[in-house]
Each structure stands twice: as C-alpha cells, then as structure tokens.
Amino acid sequence: MAKIIGGLTSSHIPAVGNAIEQGLTQEPYWKRFFDGYAPAKAWLAENQPDVVIVVYNDHGLNFFLDKVPTFAIGCADRYENADEGWGLKPVAPFTGDAELSWHIAESLVEQEFDICTCQEIKVDHGFVNPLRALWGTSDPWPIKTIPLAVNTVQHPVPSAKRCLQLGHALGRAIESYPEDLKVVVLGTGGMSHQLQGERAGIINVEFDLDCMEKIINEPQWLTQFSNDEIMAQAGTEGIETIMWLVMRGALQPQVKLVHKHYHVPISNTGAGLLVLDNQ
C-alpha cells in the first residue's frame, strides 16, 4: 500500500525562482532563506519519497478569473512549466503519476469532494519554486509529481476547515492505493503578505508563527477563523496559508517535527518552512 511518509510546507514566492536562476542563493539578502532548506533537503535525501503531491494555487497560467475550480488535480504523466510573465526561464517538464492521480480523484469524489480533473495542466511558480528549493533544479526531476490546485485567488475561496477536510480525504485516498509508494505532501503558499491596496506589504510575524506552531499538532486551530479574519490578520494573499492545512490533514493526528524555519522579509512576504515526519 502507498504510505504518506511526511509533509512539508514552503512559501512559493516568484523571486525565489529568479534567485536560483541568477545564482543569488548565498547573497546576503537570500542566504538565510535558502540555508533554512538544508535540513529539509537532508530529510528528503534520507527518506527518498517516490511521489510528491504539491498543493498550490494557480496564478492565471491555467485558470483565469472567468473559470476557476475550487479544487483541481492533475491527471497526466507529464507537466510542463511555462513563461508566466515573471521573467522566469521555464524548467524541465515534471513526470506525473496518472494512475495514482486518477485513484485519488475517484476516491475524493466518493468522499464527496467534486474535484476538477485535468488531463493537461501547466504548472507555474506556485508549484515549481518549492520543488526547486527542496530538490534543486533538475533535468530530469528526481521525483514524480502530482499538482493539486486550490483556489485562493478568485472569491469565494474554500475555508480553512474545508481545506483540512480535503486533507483528511486525500490521506485516505493515498493510503488506499495498492502500489507500494512513499509519498510526501507539500503545502505551498503564504505566509502573511498583501500585494495591493493600502495594506500592501503587511507582514504579521506573530500570526505567522502561531500558524506554524499550531499546524504541527493542532491544525484545527486555524479553522476557527473565517477567510475574512485570516486576511485581516495576514493580508489578502496570506489566505494561501490555508493550503498548508490540506497537507496537514493528510497526515496522522500526531506527527514528529523535523524542522521549522521562518524568515522575513523576502519579497515582502513572510516565508515559512516545516518538515513533518509521518512515520
């Protein structure tokens, strides 16, 4: 049977891809951010997962404001990266696992999550940059990937509670798959930031650190807040942190914290990283 061996979180700031591409990772501005990934990379190297399910939000590369599914899953054997207007050079295509994707989709529908299935989907910085930070830029990539997109762009967006419920359903789906696979779930996005309006540039360190601490073994804490309350605390784009709950819900109720790292400011965004061992 497939086994979820762990979960990770990572911010997915577009500037991360540029820093990697330009060789800036050890420059003073970026050094602490990238150094924080070393323990996560070591854990991944030691545990050698076969598949990573990347929970992220599409930024207009596939879904524009006229058509945005609440939840969508890639069901392909290959995912292409494309130019999305940030000046980021597209990376090598990612290998998918269509059989596992379809199993997850069918299981989620049986569990009353009406997920959108995508046999063709391009992946943007929200998907790509955390993988580059954790595995390095590769051609070919050393791990199979499955994109799981959550709408955090066009309101109404799902609640923190619904994302945690999706995680529970995702965990059941993965661990009912008959093939022996080691799976990790990667929740991306956040933390506190806002890109526009009078509150542009807001960073709420206290709220970010509370979220990180509670997500480890008390993830339901975040579900007490409405989306409006989360955005009031963390900024309009800070709502992305609800995607971490999809990852956390897929894991066991109690997990082992391997690594926690927080850094600010990076591109006016609170940047958080967790590694949770589910074994």
From TrEMBL:
GO terms for molecular function: ferrous iron binding; oxidoreductase activity, acting on single donors with incorporation of molecular oxygen, incorporation of two atoms of oxygen. Gene3D superfamilies: LigB-like. The keyword Oxidoreductase applies. Pfam families: LigB. It comes from the Bacteria. Keywords: Dioxygenase, Oxidoreductase. Residues 8-268 form the Extradiol ring-cleavage dioxygenase class III enzyme subunit B domain. This is Gallate dioxygenase. It comes from Halioxenophilus aromaticivorans.
